[in-house]
Amino acid sequence: HIAIADTIKADAQQAVARLKAQGLTTAMLTGDGQDSADAVAQTVGIDEVRARLLPEDKLSALTDIREKRGAVMFVGDGINDAPVLAGADVGAAMGSGADAAIEAADVVFMNADLSSIPASVGIARKANLISKENIVFALTVKLLVMALGLFGIASMWLAVFADTGVAMLCVLNSVRMLYMKTE
Questions:
Q1: Which letter, b or e, does each residue of 56-93 get, where b requires 16 or more Cβ atoms within 10 Å of its Cβ?
Q2: Is the pTM of the predicted complex or chain greater than 0.90?
Q3: Is 152 left (phi over 0), alpha (psi -120 to 50) or beta?
Q4: For the chain, does the N or the C end have fewer beta carbons within 10 angstroms?
Q5: Residue 146: enclosing H or E segment and its boundaries?
Q6: Which residues contact 107 (CB under 8 A, 6 or more apart)?
Q7: Using an 8 Å Cβ cutoff, are 79 and 95 in contact?
Q8: Which residues contact 146 (CB under 8 A, 6 or more apart)?
Q9: What is the pLDDT of residues 18-53, one digit of tens each?
């Protein structure tokens, strides 16, 4: 009798804990046996496990999870993950994975460090927040200048600022993403 099992990455438990701290639900879709999958999930802290899945089964499981919970990010590295990476809202491949997985993914992590996953979610959330700030700021200034223009108070220079100046301020606001620290 010979038993072979994958080893759990050292940073897996910490990465899953960070994802949960971000308010995300974790699920594992695997072709491995149920007992092995359950043991890994329990050790790492994964919320939901679906085991003994073929590639097309992974895609239907992902669709089921999307219907229950909303948008789904799938992280994989194997050739069997390519269909589900392509079908996910965000497909992320580990750079050390199979070429088919890398080609099918929307995002490729250049290392196999699992802490990159919660860090990327944090970056995406901050980028989304800054985008919303820029939209609100730009529309507010433009509406204010338009209202002033209706009353004959706005000058041509104010209108130029409302267009070009606000665009430049939004770009500068976005640049601060470069200096943000991720947890």
A1: eebbebbeebeeeeeebbbbbbbebbbbbbbbbebbbb
A2: no
A3: left
A4: N
A5: helix 116-150
A6: 90, 91, 92, 93, 120
A7: no
A8: 154, 162
A9: 999 999 999 999 998 999 899 999 999 999 999 999
Helix/strand/coil for 9: coil
Residues in the chain: 183
- pLDDT tens for 68-101 read 999 999 999 888 899 999 999 999 998 887 888 8
Q: Tell me the CB-side half-sphere exposure of residue 167, using CA atoms within 13 A.
A: 5
Whether 88 contacts 105, CB under 8 Å: no
